[in-house]
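pinning this so it doesn't scroll away 📌
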Amino acid sequence: MSRTLFLGGAVSALLVLAALVSFVWTPFDHTAMDIPAKLQTPNAVHWFGTDHFGRDMFSMIMVGARTSIAVAVVAVGIGIGLGVPLGLWAAARQGGWVDEVIMRGNDLIFAFPSLVIAILITAIFGAGAINAIIAIGIFNIPVFARVTRGGALPLWAREFIMAARVAGKGPARISLEHILPNIANLLIVQATIQFSLGILAEAALSYVGLGAQPPTPSWGRMLADAQTLVSIAPHMALVPGFAIIVTVLGLNLLGDGLRDALDPRLRVARA
């Protein structure tokens, strides 16, 4: 196992562990306000300090991890569930009108900044985690469609695909039984990348008030709450900011490690 894969996996596992543990235990109630204890710096009682309402920031970070993971997982699921079939369909109909419609639709979505359109969608349909998931998921669809199509196209010219055609298998069956298993490594790596981008997008939407709504903790919301208090309580911005940085870095390292481990060409080059 490479160091990159080990480090990325460790950080990702720690994130998931914190989110799972938050369902049954946090050091303090993340919604409980204690005004006399507000703006405390990290100490033996409050490990990450307290915010302007006296809430324990360590507990909020744990529950915020749960929020970020939930949004990112569902958003990536939307991208995979819709983008992969579209990419397989486009590759199977290469050069036809189906391929052209799908790819031009992808180009149309890519023509606009994803975060701006996500903000527009959530602003129109209302703030909340559900609408944030939908907004982020929409922009995962063309990403997975392009990756799937790009990985599938070279395979359609391979001998084993020709043999499957001679055996009487149709495009749909070939895509499911032969194409998809051979591009699974590409999709796994892309999923880790989109997962990290989903966490960033959720934090950005929450920062502007369009993501998860109070009292549900969100790392982006914690940053927004801290922006006017940075000079007197810098830990309020540093703690959620550091959580976002470490999480995204860990997931990107995991993606790089998985790419190195799953790509046979890289394994041959290392050998």
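📌 and the second one:
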Amino acid sequence: MLKRRRLIFSLLAIAPVIAIFAYVRLFPIGEILRLSLHKWDILSKNKPFIGLANFQELFGDRLFHEALINTSIIAFGVLVITVPLAMVLAALIFYRTRSRFAGFYETTIFIPHVVSLVPAAMAWKWIFDARLGPLNALLSVFGIEPQAWLFDPKLSLISVIILCSWQALGYAVLIYLVGFKNLPKSLYEAAKLDGASGFQSFWHLSIPLLKPISLYVGVATLVSAFNVYAQVYVLASDAQGAPGRQVRVLVLDMLENTFRNYRVGYAASEAVVLLVIVLILTFIQFSLLREKGARK
């Protein structure tokens, strides 16, 4: 009877939280799924059910293919840069700066993660400016000709990847620092007694032991990068002639179909595709972690 009362009390205690979560998170997902199966035009009162017609049109849409490819390039580019660099920076902070300045280094690296996206993107837009940007001025010192960072399609993608990596790095370093602080010191002491160098200990001990952290950081970074929007909208907008069409991403394509073309159902089908991508990445994360746990 006591256990039953505790169970009922626990359920009642968390019920408001579950209700709010369902309303804020689950209900919008269900609504998006419903809209994706309708020809939902803002300007029309008639919103007929059309089944999977939106998805059939979607996979034949050249602009959608372009947005999906660009988003994937940005996401995996950010992943390749962020994960190894964050691990190395976290190792340097943890092992080389065990002083009163360690907190300063951690704060400096983490600040870009909490800075508002729009001001940060505007600052980087100035850095990448073809005529007045300091990046081209720095390259000219080494004899490299100025580059049209925000005009060339490939360079525009690289610019967005750099900006997104800069913003994602702080959170990844913070997570890795937590991982380094929880590694068993006895293993490193034994490796040092056996004559292992610092690099050997990092390569053969830190990297394998931090595999769960790397999986989490990798998937979190990838999922976040697939939702890129503000960086592209500000950094690669048409204000300076940047190829907005060629830096088209999924979220930007959804907003354009919703508010410019008034095709809410079609945009909802794009959101469903993005949701499926996020779910697949999350499933891969849990599968890899479960596999590691089973081996243990």
